Every structure is written in C-alpha cells, then in structure tokens.
C-alpha cells in the first residue's frame, strides 16, 4: 500500500516532518513498521499551500524512491508551509508514473489515499463512467485513488466533503456487489481545500489501515515542558499520519475505525463514517 502524512498548523519547513523525525516519512519509505509492505518505493509526492501565495496548491511528484530523491530534499529544506500533504507510494498494480503519484489536485483541492479498490480492473469502467463530465478530463493517471477523488468531486466534495466521501464509498461498494466483489474498499484518505483538512478511515471489512493524529499540543507541552519543538508549534497544530513519526509516549492517538475528522481553526471534530448508497 502506501504511507502518508497531513500537516496543519504553524508554518514549518517541510523537511521537519519528511526527514528529521526518527520515523520520518522518508524512513517509512524504507522501513515501514505498520504498512502492508515494508518498502514504499514507487514514487513520492508533496502538495503544499504557500504562506503568502495563491490559494491553489503547488505539487511536487517524482516516480523514484523517496529516499533517493535529491530534488525532494532540496525542496524540503527551502519550502515553508502551514498546510501540506505528503505521500510515499507502493503500487497496487498500476504503473509507476508521475500521474499516478499522490497527492492529486483539482483547483484548490488536494487528495491522497492509502488502500485500494479490490479488483479495480473489473470495476473501473462502471466507476469511471459515473464521474461527472466536468471532472472527467482532469483524470490523468490510472489509479483507483484518482478515480475515488473524482467520484468524490462528482458527489459534492467542494460543498460537503464528508457526505461526498460517504457517497463515493457507498457507490464503490454498490458497484462491487453487482460484480460479485466482496469487501471492495480499503482506505485512509486526507483531503483539503487549503483552509480545512479532512481525514477518513474506513474499509468494507472494518479492518482499516492504521491512522493516527497527534495529541493536542497544549497537553503535550504539559507532559514535556522541556521539549523545545513543542513550544514552536501553535495549539491548533495537527499532524495526521499513517504511522507515528516517533516514540514519544502519549504523543499519538489512533483514529477510530470507520470515522472522519476535520481540522479547522476554532475546533476539530470527529464523527462516524457511514457509506451512503447513491
């Protein structure tokens, strides 16, 4: 599968999460501890929003292993952002090519995914034909993840992200039933419009891939008053990850099975995720 992280908070250099933690995303590209595969070497991508720049995000995507990408290292030490997504890919069967690397972008939206649609080749035609003609031309690659993104856009991602992703999941499951494919959907997803960040954890068999979020920074400062890194972060800083970036006791909380969460100024929220029939 894949590993990913999503960051929202005080502006930081991207390398602070990609390279510096003990179990950074780059380390996970070689030595994942909780993924299906230990190695995630089929591409890497980062999507970020400028601190003072335009609302549309910028993308960097490469097809080589993250651990050897010198351009990514240069970017990481020079780009600062208060909201970014990063992803390392382990292909589930589709080609290793730039257009298949996450995150995916449409307008000001970013989307990244860990998981798969079972027997995607059998279901692909029915799924793709349901994409709204307005969004269809933006599908550039061949992954199930990008089709999921465009289905969510079709079902109203820009207006009501939670309902749109629930409709997307319900539609995938209904198509799979028609084709006799059991337990078709496995996903952890991060998506953002540049202001708010949503995360989803769901699978048809209710055994979803791992997903964690950091404990509130204010609480961590009380636990670790001498940790200088925590004092550089705002109280509203949130990091959502496929697996923890370190071993600081109490720093990471598992996202519940079949749930969604939103990171937004003024208060985060968590709710149950229930696929909806189209």
TrEMBL record:
Record flagged with keyword Transcription: no
Top-rank lineage group of the source organism: Bacteria
Domain Glutamine amidotransferase type-2: 2-244
Keywords: Glutamine amidotransferase
Record flagged with keyword Ion transport: no
Name listed for the protein in its UniProt record: Class II glutamine amidotransferase
Organism: Virgisporangium ochraceum
């Amino acid at each position: 599968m894949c590993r990913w992280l999503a960051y929202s908070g005080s502006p930081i250099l991207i390398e602070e999460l990609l390279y510096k933690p003990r179990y950074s995303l780059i380390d996970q590209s070689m030595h994942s501890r909780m993924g299906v595969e230990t190695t995630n070497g089929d591409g890497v991508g980062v999507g970020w929003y400028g601190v003072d720049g335009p609302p549309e995000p910028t993308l960097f995507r490469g097809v080589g292993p993250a651990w050897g990408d010198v351009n990514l290292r240069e970017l990481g030490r020079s780009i600062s952002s208060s909201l970014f997504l990063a992803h390392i890919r382990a292909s589930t069967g589709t080609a290793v090519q730039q257009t298949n690397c996450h995150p995916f972008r449409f307008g000001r939206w970013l989307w990244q995914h860990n998981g798969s649609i079972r027997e995607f080749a059998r279901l692909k035609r029915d799924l793709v034909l349901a994409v709204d003609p307005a969004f269809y031309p933006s599908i550039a690659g061949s992954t199930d993840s990008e089709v999921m993104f465009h289905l969510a856009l079709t079902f109203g991602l820009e207006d009501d992200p939670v309902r749109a992703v629930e409709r997307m999941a319900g539609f995938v499951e209904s198509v799979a039933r028609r084709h006799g494919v059991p337990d078709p959907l496995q996903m952890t997803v991060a998506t953002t419009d540049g202001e708010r960040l949503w995360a989803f954890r769901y699978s048809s068999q209710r055994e979803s891939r791992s997903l964690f979020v950091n404990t509130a920074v204010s609480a961590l400062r009380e636990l670790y008053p001498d940790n200088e890194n925590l004092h550089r972060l705002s109280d509203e800083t949130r990091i959502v990850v496929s697996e923890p970036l370190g071993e600081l006791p109490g720093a990471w909380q598992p996202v519940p099975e079949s749930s969604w969460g939103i990171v937004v100024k003024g208060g985060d929220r968590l709710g149950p995720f229930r696929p909806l029939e189209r």
